[in-house]
């Protein structure tokens, strides 16, 4: 009897503690959910290094461009291993020749790793293109040259693992010219043999193995130095290439990966100096490409990493703002890109690999006017289809049939999974509008909001400066709703739109770089009293407007009208 009473008392006490335990968990929810965190640094800075995940879960990071003892750039032969258990890098054997990321790296079916071509240096330190290839054996930690070289020097080429374990190596730059030639590497014989030529010469293209064993080759630069939209298919059964449907937009230095449904997603890249934001899907059954959602930030020299849950992560790369720390994710179910928590450091040409537990390693790379980076970080994906930070804002259409009294209704929600910081809203009332009253309703996601008006402009921000994520993203839950009762001007065209800008960030390591910023713009016109504006997609706006909202949010507004 006494035992039952003790058990009952303990159980009652535990149940009573549950609300307290849940409250204690709230501050840590964001840290546990997702985001980029620093890992140990690489043993040396590497620009254009290559990475491959090994069967035991470690990641081989090899080659690239680094600095020698005199501070001069050199092509690296060294390699290191990332241990996800300890988040540290350890040394391993070196390649027989230094080579950069213009080479290719391919994880073989037997657990070894093949590296082909690229740019290196001869004995006199002169830059040369390479025809050599070598294989890393994780059992011994050593690299060995293949039994023969490729049919010629190659860099900016593409390589992909075939269904039978062989590797197709195609195109690239050769001895002063772009190549249409292709080689096949056979791990069983450790040798390369020529196969059929591509339909055109190309470099900086993509190569993706399809579910039926064929290989899709997409885009690149061709002989006249113009980017191309064309694509072709390699059939390993015949050793021949044949043209297939082309991209909607030509591009080179794009990325591509196969989705779980068998289609191929192509993202980013350049078209003769212009960044391409387009995402396109190749359907092997139809042999055609179709547009899907655009990337939030167009980029090149980036990484496109398929995640175990079927989504695809885009990280780093060159953008119109330089090496970016912005990351985003494509969901093939919704066909949409969503913003995720940004990397702690902007960069391009990083080494990227998915870990066995679903996390993603991003290591090294380059930033303008800085030496090659040794900094590495690991991304933990957000569970489910939710973005890490996703502002949703709507503004109602003015509820007025003509001139006279009316109102606007503006609301803002963080539909992501991370708490937002530096939150602010700035809006511009139409000329001649007289504000009669503000009404502000807020949820416990952000605390008390304050608004200030100066002429036709007004700014609003939460007193605490943060905006917690909606605990149930499936159900819209605005953090704040602002009703503006006003009187329309006696003359002029009416109704007029209310243009609003919202900005928020996710907290990151300020010692490295500034916060991630996401901006939503909403503009509403029309007189339909029933209409509510559709949620606008986050997109960049003028720097001046962004700076103004940032200042408003950082200062913390006081006073309510």
What assembly state would you assign to the polypeptide chains in this entry? Answer: single chain
Euclidean distance between termini CA atoms: 65 Å
How much of the polypeptide forms β-strand, as a percent range?
Answer: 35-45%
Count the domains. 2
Distinct helical segment count: 3
Q: Determine Rg (CA atoms, Å).
A: 27 Å
Shape: elongated
CATH superfamily of the largest domain: Kelch-type beta propeller
Helix/strand structural class: mainly beta
Question: How does CATH name the architecture of the largest domain?
Answer: 6 Propeller
Question: Low-confidence spans: pLDDT under 50, at least 5 residues?
Answer: 1-33, 509-515, 525-561
Query: What is the level 1 CATH name of the largest domain?
Result: Mainly Beta
Mean pLDDT: 83
What would the CATH topology of the largest domain be? Neuraminidase
The total strand number stands at: 46
Secondary structure: helix percent: under 10%
Q: Largest sheet, if any? A: 6 strands, antiparallel
Structure, described:
The chain is mainly beta and 561 residues long. The chain has two domains: 35-380, Kelch-type beta propeller (Neuraminidase), CATH 2.120.10.80; 393-505, no CATH class. It is 7% helix and 38% strand. Strands 39, 41, 42, 43, 45 and 46 form a six-stranded antiparallel beta sheet that branches. The longest helix has 24 residues, at 2-25. The radius of gyration is 27 Å and the shape is elongated. The N and C termini lie far apart (65 Å). Mean pLDDT is 83; it is low at 1-33, 509-515 and 525-561.
């Amino acid at each position: 009897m006494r035992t039952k009473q003790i058990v009952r008392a303990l159980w009652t006490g535990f149940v009573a503690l549950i609300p307290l335990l849940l409250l204690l968990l709230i501050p840590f929810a964001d840290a546990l959910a997702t985001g980029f965190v620093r890992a140990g640094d690489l043993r040396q800075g590497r620009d254009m290094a290559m990475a491959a995940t090994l069967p035991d879960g470690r990641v081989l990071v090899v080659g690239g461009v680094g600095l020698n003892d005199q501070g001069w750039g050199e092509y690296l032969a060294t390699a290191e291993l990332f241990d996800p258990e300890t988040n540290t890098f350890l040394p391993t054997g070196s390649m027989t020749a230094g080579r950069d990321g213009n080479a290719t790296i391919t994880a073989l079916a037997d657990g070894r790793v093949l590296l082909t071509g690229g740019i290196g240096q001869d004995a006199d330190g002169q830059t040369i293109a390479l025809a050599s290839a070598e294989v890393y054996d994780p059992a011994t930690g050593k690299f060995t040259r293949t039994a023969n070289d490729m049919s010629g020097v190659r860099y900016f080429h593409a390589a992909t693992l075939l269904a039978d374990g062989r590797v197709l190596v195609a195109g690239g730059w050769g001895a002063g010219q772009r190549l249409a030639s292709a080689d096949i590497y056979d791990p069983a014989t450790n040798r390369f043999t020529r196969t059929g030529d591509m339909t055109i010469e190309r470099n900086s293209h993509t190569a993706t193995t399809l579910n039926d064993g064929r290989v899709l080759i997409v885009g690149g630069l061709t002989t006249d130095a113009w980017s191309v939209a064309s694509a072709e298919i390699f059939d390993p059964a015949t050793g021949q290439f044949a043209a297939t449907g082309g991209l909607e937009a030509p591009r080179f230095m794009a990325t591509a990966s196969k989705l779980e449904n068998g289609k191929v997603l192509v993202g980013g890249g350049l078209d003769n100096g212009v960044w391409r934001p387009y995402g396109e899907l190749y359907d092997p059954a139809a042999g055609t490409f179709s547009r899907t959602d655009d990337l939030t930030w167009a980029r090149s020299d980036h990484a496109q990493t398929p995640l175990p849950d079927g989504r695809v992560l885009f990280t780093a790369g060159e953008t119109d703002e330089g090496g970016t720390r912005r990351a985003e994710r494509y969901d093939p179910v919704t066909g949409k890109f969503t913003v995720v928590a940004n990397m702690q450091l902007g960069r391009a040409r990083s080494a990227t690999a998915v870990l066995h537990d679903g996390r993603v390693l991003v290591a090294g790379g380059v930033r303008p006017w800085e030496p090659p980076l040794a900094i590495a970080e690991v991304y933990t994906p957000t569970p489910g289809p939710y973005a890490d930070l996703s502002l949703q804002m709507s503004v109602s259409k003015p509820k007025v049939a003509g001139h006279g009294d009316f109102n606007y209704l503006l609301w803002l929600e963080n539909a992501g999974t991370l708490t937002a910081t530096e939150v602010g809203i700035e809006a511009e009332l139409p000329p001649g509008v007289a504000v009669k009253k503000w009404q502000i309703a807020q949820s416990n996601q952000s605390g008390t909001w304050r608004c200030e008006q100066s002429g036709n402009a007004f700014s609003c921000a939460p007193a605490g400066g943060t905006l917690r994520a909606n605990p149930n993203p499936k159900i819209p839950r605005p953090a704040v709703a602002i009703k503006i009762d006003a009187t329309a001007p006696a003359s002029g065209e009416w109704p007029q739109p209310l243009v609003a800008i919202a900005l928020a960030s996710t907290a990151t390591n300020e010692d490295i770089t500034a916060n991630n910023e996401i901006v939503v713009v909403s503009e509403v016109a029309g007189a339909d009293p029933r209409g509510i504006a559709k949620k606008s997609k986050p997109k960049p706006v003028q720097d001046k407007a962004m700076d103004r909202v940032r200042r408003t949010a950082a200062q913390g507004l006081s006073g309510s009208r």
